[in-house]
Structure formats: C-alpha cells, structure tokens
C-alpha cells in the first residue's frame, strides 16, 4: 500500500501547484486500537509502536518509504530495499547492533517479469495469498 501511495502522489500536485512530497514510515509491533469519541467517533491506534512509526515517517525523505529494523521486508523475497546509515534511526529507537532502517523502493514478485508494473506484481502476490489454506 505504501508503494502504491508514493506512486499515486508522485504524479499529482497540490492545490497551490506544487508537487505532493509524501513521506511514509513503517514500524512493526503491537498496538492498542479502539473507537473514541461520542459526537464524532474515530478509530484510533495507541501505543509506543504508533509513535515509532511516526518517527520513521519523520526521518524519511520525500517520496520514500522508511522501514524500521523490526519490519523485516528487507529479508523477504521480492521487496527491494536500500539500507540507510545507522545514524538515520530516529532518536530514542534502540536496535540491535548491526541493524538499521531501510528505504523500501519497490516490489517484484518472484517469477514475474520485472518490466511489468507494480500493480501487476502486487495483484499476483495477493492472488497467491487467497489460494493459501488458512
């Protein structure tokens, strides 16, 4: 979803004519979720991991997806990542020595031709998820 969001906003401009320069941060961990409010109920996420995802967004760069060391996409087949220097980790984030955050810049489904567009690679992966036994 993050890759498709970056792809979609890179072709659009804001109401003032400037390009949209979205940044995305992804962190993996447990959260607490619930609906809050009576007049205007909203679904909200709470917890330290929500704050960490926000910090990974803040330390990202325009039109890039910054993923935390706990989001192990860099070890998953098909996800194209680029490691960042360890000093790019947000303040207050403790990570085991030798780990760092990564920029996620693409996804190529294994076995599909790389020249096909991103939506095709994602659709293939999703169709295989639907075929897996629960």
Automatic annotation (TrEMBL):
This is Guanylate cyclase domain-containing protein. One of its GO terms (cellular component) is guanylate cyclase complex, soluble. InterPro entries: A/G_cyclase, Nucleotide_cyclase. The lineage of its organism: Eukaryota, Metazoa, Ecdysozoa, Arthropoda, Hexapoda. Residues 1-57 form the Guanylate cyclase domain. Gene3D superfamilies: Nucleotide cyclase (3.30.70.1230). Keywords: Lyase. PANTHER family: GUANYLATE CYCLASE SOLUBLE SUBUNIT BETA-2 (PTHR45655), HEAD-SPECIFIC GUANYLATE CYCLASE (PTHR45655:SF6). It comes from the Eukaryota. The keyword Lyase applies. One of its GO terms (biological process) is response to oxygen levels. One of its GO terms (molecular function) is guanylate cyclase activity. Transmembrane segments: none annotated. It holds the Pfam family Guanylate_cyc.
